[in-house]
Specification:
Elements (H helix, E strand, L loop, with lengths): L1 E3 H11 E4 L5 E3 L4 E3 L9 H7 L6 E3 L3 H14 L6 E5 L3 H4 L2 H10 L3 E7 L33 E4 L6 H13 L6 E7 H5 L1 E3 L8 E3 L8 H12 L4 E5 L1 H6 L2 H11 L3 E3 L14 E4 L6 H9 L2 E5 L5 H4 L10 E6 L2 H4 L5 E4 L2 H12 L6 H22 L8 H11 L5 E4 L4 H8 L8 E3 L8 H12 L5 E6 H6 L3 H8 L4 E6 L4 H9 L24 H7 L3 E5 L2 H18 L3 E6 L23 H14 L8
Parallel strand pairs: 2-11, 4-5, 4-6, 6-7, 7-9, 8-9, 12-13, 12-15, 13-14, 15-16, 16-17, 18-19, 18-20, 20-21, 21-23, 22-23
Antiparallel strand pairs: 1-10, 2-3
Helix pairs in contact: 1-2, 3-5, 3-18, 8-14, 10-14, 11-15, 15-16, 16-17, 16-23
Family: Belongs to the TPP enzyme family.
InterPro entries: DHS-like_NAD/FAD-binding_dom (IPR029035), Myo_inos_IolD (IPR030817), THDP-binding (IPR029061), Thiamin_PyroP_enz_cen_dom (IPR012000), Thiamin_PyroP_enz_TPP-bd_dom (IPR012001), TPP_enz (IPR045229), TPP_enzyme_TPP-bd (IPR011766)
GO molecular function, one term: magnesium ion binding
């Protein structure tokens, strides 16, 4: 078939299908987010226009925002579908680098198709081209190499024949999943080649189920049998494997308490008797207490980030660390006893080997006891009080109204600690806390993608004023495209959680809360979030108090669904009230300072570091 590079790429995308966990099929690439410029409008743009009835093309208004929306699709579909974003060369391409970082850190699929400069070089230097004196082959798209699982620059049309199978592999492989960048020089996009029809045959991508090595399986089973206080840690890999139910049955059969990581939140029903709560800095005291007393930790589908391990102070120095992960890279971290396998297959075979073995029932009973204490604490934080509403109270209202088919999101600032630590799961895998890259602005852009993918229930994103101001253009994109979700914007007058870190480690409040920022104005300007959101085509529901919030949120849910556009709830919140899990986090406190408070904080850091454990097998 005589096609241009761009036409062939688009037809290949249309031929890719995916098998969902319920056995049904769907397009692997459900749509393309695009901002066209001179680097992609004629090649890829025309190729997409030719098939406009076969694949949706949504217009973005900021390249970072639309690419983050594409990431949101990958998360909301549990990595079974892949969002695509295309931009022109130069600033448009570079704007998508941050989204690639989000996908890479969180092991999420994303296909980026940035335009590139001319391979022929005849018109160089072209508009938006950055020239490198010693290397004319380098373009701004090389910036994607550091944040891509797979990168290629297509300099001849026939290169697609070798590259596209690798693209599909990375986007669908449980171990290697992450962002793929195909840089597309604008002259090559328009070049033709006789592509074999076989390239465009329908391919159905099914979840890979790697089974564990039998010897490793026996070693892990032996370690579990020799433990008296095992703890099961569930991460995002359990979600992406569709192994939530399997993990719960495993815990029940063997009487093992369960905690969740950030990416694993809402895998376990909140009231399950073995559920000890979330783990780590933004987790729960209950989960952290059990982690500290465990003599064996079986971590499934997690890369054990510092917020999960409390900078490696969460576990006992004598703990036996065992990991079950599809990626060997993650499984062998910290000298763990590694079981490389799909989470569902690994837990199934491990159950078979363990047979009727169970942990001490008194240890299992502690999970419920500790979590009930944590529940009481969260309930006290949610209780109405005088003054500005707290984040915990706002989350409580949203949580109480939510249903099992709803989906809740956040990404940065203080809200992750409130959702991870305080949310009571209403349904399985119904939370997206982007805390691998903690990208301000993902809250709104990612919600657009989630609203596209999540066709039942309400999508609600919670964010602070700082994240809203960081990236809000995709509110208009979602409104224009007809995708409804609810955004609860909590205005606490600045970057309050970083102010908390700054002052909590002995520093003076500086450049975070508006009161500490440089301005010549006696009465500094403030953003009217309600008016701004309305100007972007959103329905808006201000809440003047905690008492108003439930009604505003319920109305927002109704309008977002009925009118197919974002509905924004705006509420003023307290700047310094947070949910604390009692865990330690290593941060870079200066060794020397003019402030005695910082010197004291440095001593506390050294005390914390003395408790860090390096597990080396």
């Amino acid at each position: 078939m005589r096609l241009t590079t761009a036409q062939a790429l688009v037809r290949w995308m249309l031929a890719q299908r995916t098998e969902l966990f319920d056995g049904t099929q769907a397009p692997l690439f459900p749509g393309v987010f695009a901002i066209f410029g001179h680097g992609n409008v004629l090649g890829l743009g025309n190729a997409l226009e030719e098939v406009r009835g076969q694949i949706p093309v949504w217009r973005g208004h900021n390249e970072q925002g639309m690419a983050l929306a594409a990431v949101g699709i990958g998360k909301a579909t549990h990595r079974r579908q892949v969002g695509v974003a295309t931009s022109s060369i130069g600033p448009g391409a570079l704007n998508m680098v941050t989204a690639a970082g989000v996908a890479h850190a969180n092991r999420l699929p994303l296909l980026l198709l940035p335009g590139d400069t001319f391979c022929g070089r005849a018109p160089d230097p072209v508009l938006q081209q950055v020239e490198h004196y010693g290397d004319p082959t380098t373009t701004v798209n090389d910036a994607f190499r550091a944040v891509s699982r797979y990168f290629d620059r297509i300099t001849k049309p026939e290169q697609l024949l070798g590259t596209l199978p690798q693209v599909a592999r990375v986007l669908t492989d449980p171990a290697d999943c992450g962002p793929v960048t195909l840089a597309l020089p604008q002259d090559v996009q328009a070049e033709s080649y006789d592509f074999p029809e076989e390239l465009f045959r329908t391919v159905v991508h099914r979840p890979l189920r790697q089974r564990p090595d039998l010897r490793a399986l026996a070693d892990v089973a032996s370690a579990l049998r020799n433990s008296s206080r095992p703890l099961l840690v569930l991460g995002g890999g359990v979600r992406y494997s569709g192994a939530g139910g399997r993990a719960i049955r495993f815990a029940e059969q063997h009487g093992i308490p369960v905690v969740e990581t950030t990416a694993g939140r809402t895998l376990v029903p909140h009231d399950h008797p073995l559920h000890a709560g979330p783990l780590g800095i933004t987790g729960s005291t209950s989960g952290n207490v059990l982690a500290g007393d465990a003599d064996l930790v079986l971590a499934v589908g997690t890369r054990l980030q510092d917020f999960t391990t409390a900078s490696w102070t969460a576990f006992s120095p004598d703990v036996r660390l065992v990991t079950l992960n599809a990626a060997r890279f993650d499984a062998v971290k910290h000298g763990a006893l590694a079981l490389v396998a799909d989470a569902d297959e690994g837990l199934r075979e491990l159950t078979d080997v363990l047979g009727e073995w169970q942990a001490d029932h008194t240890w299992a009973a502690r999970a419920r006891q500790e979590r009930l204490r944590w529940d009481e604490h969260i309930s006290s934080l949610r209780a109405p009080s005088s003054g500005l509403p707290t984040y915990a109270q706002v989350v409580g209202v949203v949580n109480d109204v939510s249903t099992p088919s709803d989906y809740v999101m956040t990404a940065s600032g203080g809200m992750p600690g409130e959702l991870i630590g305080g949310w009571r799961a209403t349904g399985e895998s119904t939370m997206d806390v982007e805390y691998g890259f903690s990208c301000m602005g993902y809250e709104l852009a990612g919600a657009w993608g989630a609203a596209i993918a999540h066709t039942t229930g309400a999508v609600t994103t919670l964010l602070g004023d700082g994240s809203y101001l960081m990236l809000n253009s995709e509110l208009f994109s979602a409104a224009f495209a007809g995708h409804g979700f609810v955004a609860v914007v909590c205005d606490n007058d600045g970057y309050a959680v970083i102010h908390r870190l700054q002052t909590g480690q002995g520093g003076a409040g500086f450049n975070n809360l508006y009161a500490d920022c440089l301005t010549p104005h006696t009465e500094a300007p403030r953003t009217d979030f309600a008016a701004h959101a309305a100007s972007l085509g959103c329905a808006v529901f201000p809440a003047d108090s905690l008492g108003d919030l439930e009604g505003a949120y319920r109305k927002a849910r109704e309008v977002a669904a009925a009118e197919h556009r974002p509905a924004v709830v705006v509420i003023k919140t307290h700047p310094s009230s947070w949910t604390e899990a009692g865990a330690w986090w290593e941060v870079g406190v200066p060794e020397t300072s003019h402030r005695p408070e910082i010197a004291a904080a440095r001593e506390s850091v050294q005390e914390g570091k003395a408790k860090q454990v390096r597990y080396l097998g």
